[in-house]
Amino acid sequence: MPFARHGRPRDANSLGDAALTPFWLDDPRRPEPTVALEGDVTADLVVVGGGFTGLWTALLAAERDSRRDVLLVEGDCVAQGASGRNGGFMADSLTHGLGNGISRWPEQMPTLLSMGQANLDAIENTINEHSIDCDFRRSGGLDVAVDRHQVDDLREAVELGNGLGLGLEFLDRDAVRSLVDSPTYLAGVLDRRGTALVNPARLAWGLRQACLDRGVRIHEGTAVTAVDEDGTGMRLTTAAGSVRAAQVALATNAFPPLLRRIRQYVVPVYDYVLVTEPLTREQRDAIGWHGEQGIGDAGNQFHYYRLTADGRILWGGYDAEYHWNNGFGPHLENDHESYLRLATHFFDTFPQLRGIRFTHAWGGAIDTCSRFCAYWGRAFGGRLSYVVGFTGLGVAASRFGAEVMLDHLESRDTERTRLEMVRSKPLPFPPEPLRSVGISWTRASLDRADRFDGKRNLWLRSLDRLGLGFDS
After folding, report:
1. Among the listed residues 208, 179, 204, the one whose alpha carbon sits nearest the alpha carbon of residue 192
2. Which helix (H) or strand (E) holds 388?
3. Given 32, 34, 387, 431, which is the most exposed site by the fewest CB atoms within 10 A?
4. 3-state class of 225 per DSSP?
5. CB within 8 A of 204, min separation 6: which ones?
6. Which segments of 334-416 does DSSP mark as H helices, in order?
7. What is the pLDDT of residue 2?
């Protein structure tokens, strides 16, 4: 069923008490921040950014060489950005889904799939090794069709995935509604092994502690304002000091980039999320959701949702808001129209739960690039490496991104660095005003396709031919 573009006023009541803060960060176990950097210091490697990408880079660097002096600087607090604002889905895909990967690197997909599965396994091993309490569950994932044309799309996805050994299961209407009962569901695809769920903030805090235990120095509240060459090394300027280092790993993702060259390839897109109060046993029985699968619907403008450890439903997605000239900042982290639209779609999906309240509502920026998945680059003669552009599927892929960054900094020729995905870059976005116009046309075209049996208009077909995209 096509979802309403605008919310219904009656659904606003469910939002009346919602705290405008990320559910994951509203946690008494949130650690106190480390002290900000003051004065001039040195390091072998400085990592800029305290989200998943930066934390994995620092931890893996320390594990690769215990003698390496690793320093991580974060402008705010660890996990304050996208790493503490996402839905907590960890996919084994490195390519933002099978279809996207097949369309770009068909010959290397078996390798990419194998690497993605190994990456998720390695994350689980790290969580166990460091006893990180983050509600990690190998839950599996469920994609659901909510419109007729999506049923055939899901059948094709199963055929494609199983041709590569993924073991996907196609579910008809009755079968999918036996797992989770929504009147909107027409079919589904169950992936029992490719998705895990996690409390993302607690994972980030656990990685932070693992870094500290390995001797990594961390300075929060330390924004980097400039990166420059300094003889044979690098110099990073902060508000109250500087860092001189042999190498730099940039892990700033959706934040305004310290390298201007990144700006043409990445746009920050705002995504919004709601979390309900804990469901009662009767409410849980009413929707029949007794498993742990993470769920996403198959629309171009899609929703993702899941149960939390304490029995709430996290419900996000659909809107993907771009603001003029890569607009970014805390003033964009709340959008009441998006919250109302999400609430309306929630009750369309689960009318059995009408009357439930949402306790948290928030937004955050996603680092979106035109090929939907991460890309890498180097600067300053290879002394600086970066990865960016995860497009909303970076909770797990960030670890792989960190591995490649370190390979680049160490000048290592590995199976990872030989991947065409790693060696190539996405097509850039055009400058303003064409950037805003193009994104607006794309969003409108995606909305139209969702409403008219998935038919892609000339604009979308042209983008497909060029390998360009904009994902909700």
Report:
1. 179
2. strand 384-388
3. 32
4. strand
5. 50, 51, 52, 55, 78, 79, 83, 84
6. 336-349, 394-409
7. 62
DSSP state for residue 442 in the 8-state scheme: H
Whether the bond between 433 and the residue before it is cis, its omega within 30 degrees of 0, is yes
Question: From residue 264, how far is each of 127, 152, 260, 466 by CA, in Å?
Answer: 36, 36, 8, 17
Whether 443 and 470 have beta carbons less than 8 Å apart is answered as yes
Query: Taking the mean position of all CA atoms in its chain, how far away is CA 389?
Result: 10
Rounded distance between C-alpha atoms, residue 426 and residue 102, angstroms:
15
Distances in Å between the Cα of 124 and the Cα atoms of 1, 130, 135, 142, 339 are: 37, 10, 11, 21, 33
Q: What is the pLDDT of residue 9?
A: 79
In Å, how far are 145, 281, 291, 294 from 192, measured between CA atoms? Answer: 18, 25, 11, 10
Distance CA 257, CA 312 (A): 35
And the tokens for 112? 């990419």
Angle subtended at Cα 250 by Cα 246 and Cα 255, rounded to the nearest 5 degrees: 150
Cross-strand partners of 90: 196
Contacts of 419 (CB under 8 A, 6+ apart): 105, 108, 111, 112
Half-sphere exposure of 325 (CA within 13 A, CB side): 0
Please state, in angstroms and rounded to a whole number, the distance separating the CA atoms of residues 112 and 421.
9
Q: Which residues of the chain, if any, have pLDDT below 70?
A: 1-5, 443-455, 458-460, 462-464, 466-472
Distance CA 116, CA 219 (A): 31
Query: What's the number of CA atoms in the CB half-sphere (13 Å) around residue 147?
Result: 19
Q: What is the 3-state secondary structure (H, E, C) of 151-193?
A: HHHHHHHHHHHHCCCCCCEEECHHHHHHHCCCCCCCEEEEECC
- pLDDT score, position 472: 46
pLDDT number for residue 6: 75
Determine whether 129 is exposed, middle or buried from the number of CB atoms within 10 Å of its CB (0-12, 13-18, 19+): exposed
Q: CA torsion 459→464→467→471, rounded to 10°?
A: 80
For 308, residues 6+ apart whose C-beta sits below 8 A from its C-beta are 23, 135, 199, 275, 314
Backbone angles phi, psi at 426, to 5 degrees: -70, 165
pTM over 0.85: yes
pLDDT of residue 468: 62
Q: Positive or negative, the Cα torsion across 450, 452, 456, 458? A: negative
Residues shown for the chain: 472
Please give the Cα distance from 367 to 250 (Å, whole number).
14
Q: Which two tokens stand for residue 368?
A: 């979106």
Please tell me whether residue 146 adopts helix, strand or coil conformation.
coil
Closest CA to 324 of 435, 470, 429: 435
Is residue 438 packed enough to be buried (19+ CB in 10 Å), middle (13-18) or exposed (0-12)?
middle
